[in-house]
Amino acid sequence: MKTKLSQKWSLAALALGLGLALSSVQAQHINAGAFSTNQGSQLYFGNGASYVNTSGYTRSLNYSNSGQFASWFNSSSPTFTAAAQTTNNGATPALYAAAYGSFLQLRIETVASGPLGGTFAFWEDGNSTTTPTFNLNVGQTVTTGNLLDLSDASIGAGTVGADPYGHLHGRRYAVSLPGDYLVGFRIIDTSINGLNGEPIHTDSDLFLLTFRAVAVPEPTALALVGLGIVAVGVGVHRKLQK
Predict the structure, then answer these.
(1) Distance, CA of 225 to CA of 229 (rounded, Å)
(2) Domain total for the chain?
(3) Do the beta carbons of residue 103 and residue 159 sit within 8 Å?
(4) Entry pTM
(5) Is residue 15 classed as helix, strand or coil in its secondary structure?
(6) DSSP assignment of 151-170
(7) 53-77: per-residue pLDDT in tens?
(8) What is the residue range of 156's domain?
């Protein structure tokens, strides 16, 4: 039996939608590196132009009404990584990778803007409690602490001559109220393998990223949306049967 034209278009649209969704998920890795491997060279995100707030990129956060993140709008994406120098750990080397011996960490430094009374929170991998590893209120800035590893110490990163690579998962970002949050991140080399026992690289500029939490629809609105989806599904099914 031949597939009817309307069915072909429906399958094509579905495939395209799934493809776009998958590519969006796969692309959300923001990779830290340096402008060169020289002593004193500055850190930066090699692919940051695609994610910085002026790019139009926004990370959506979904509301949880139960579990560890109940009452928070949250997501495990994007993943911040440290670019690799070698293929030793299954990574793809990057021209902008930081110097051997450096150890890159990321500071969640500021919540430059957001809804009044809102909070941006972070859970580190292994934190299974309902209490964030750390958090910042809208308008708050810190200059110490609030660090998470980008380089992977478990593969030797941070030791003399070691690849600074890291690709760590299991983390969670969350906000307490609906709205747009402009969050500032800074990459820091915390190694002591540079001249005079200092870091090799200087800190990055502040990197601003937009997180968006959409208000949870009222039950009535949810019911209407559900009915609409069912109606569309029935209509498509009937067309395919003709």
Answers:
(1) 6
(2) 1
(3) no
(4) 0.80
(5) helix
(6) S-GGGTTTSTT----B----
(7) 999 999 999 999 999 999 999 999 9
(8) 30-241
